[in-house]
Description:
- There is one protein chain.
- This protein has about 425 residues and is an alpha/beta fold.
- It has a single domain (about 25-425), classed as TIM Barrel, CATH 3.20.20.
- About 40% of the residues lie in helices and about 15% in strands.
- The chain has 14 helices and 16 strands.
- Helix 12 (about 335-350) crosses helix 13 (about 380-385).
- GO terms for molecular function: deaminase activity; metal ion binding.
- This is Amidohydrolase-related domain-containing protein.
Amino acid sequence: MGEPGDFQHFGPDGWNAAGAAARCRGWSVTGMPNLHSHAFQRAMAGLAERQTHPEDSFWTWRELMYRFAGRINPDSQYAVAAQLYAEMLEAGFTSVCEFHYLHHQPDGRPYDDHGAMSKALVAAARDTGMRLSLLPVLYMTGGFDGRPLGERQRRFGHSLQAYQSLIDDLRPLASDTLAIGVALHSLRAVPPGALQELLAWIGDAALPIHIHIAEQIGEVQECEALRGARPVEWLLANADVDRRWSLVHATHLNAAEVQGIAASGATVAICPTTEANLGDGLFPLRDYLAAGGSWGIGSDSHVSVSPVEELRWLEYGQRLVQRRRNIAVGAAVPSTGECLFGEALRGGLRACGQAGAAADTVVLDADAPALAGARGDDLLDRLVFAGNRCLVRDVHVAGRQVVRDGRHLDRDRIARRYADTLRALLAD
């Protein structure tokens, strides 16, 4: 593949010597889409690592998350999201799908501008240069049995009509770096009738549709008990799932569900560091790859903000279970790093709904010791597996340079505001 001076670039179609790599001498890759983000949770990373119950799980973690979410307002939302997006850009993520459900005031009353929290995210993305797919979340019920939202969930909730009004009000904000899509929090949070009505309202519109699904064994069991089917099984039977859809987590699948998702054209958003942190389980990657399924990665709760770590731990989890090496490879491409990076890039670009995202460029540090003597046939293996030093040098999004020499151009100001905000959030 040649030396760095040959301007080699890796994009969704593989290696080529043209394109944005020629901006700067060295290796470059297309920026990675981050398919699943709850921006406010970056501020609570590291705060849930003390045992609160002998069988701590996602469900006990969720109690802390609710308490923390109750403190976030539009100003703190902006400060946390700006810090997060700057970190993502420095790590090589250039677009993010923001699965946004902190809509209202903590007591559930709408802000005077019902899009205030959404617009804080839009402003943070604009100011940092992050490409944003904003996915306001429909959240209506507290479980498959249709029970009302709990007190701490009220700020998440919408009627279907109010949700549609929010989407209509946000759509005019769309631009070449901002897409507006929709998200269903989960099957347990959206009753079947509302799901059908929303999908009819969306019609054939080419916009991203994302949903949490099959993340927890308890969720699967409750869905089977009350709807007579597993979550993915039920969704595939009751909705026209197609390339617009991203199924977030989809951790607990049977063989028919693996084949069904792959055949539908939907993308699975896998979030390995969050799924590990919460004890969720492991996605059946090898079977899904064999079925030809589309997938990408997300950093979700942001205990880590690194595409490299998401890809590495996706592979390592499979190795631990199967007790062998190099799982995510294909017959034509024996490089694990190239398969991981390429498949996540292609699936991510499909799911983020951003036509220009394939042109965003991450220039790597060709002088880094980890890349000494690198060639195209080992460059991506080194990027993913050769240590923990970030190898990103420069980042361009939509023609705008946002990272130079490994630093976001506005890093210091963003970090100061974030630090002040975090201290205030944790003051009592």
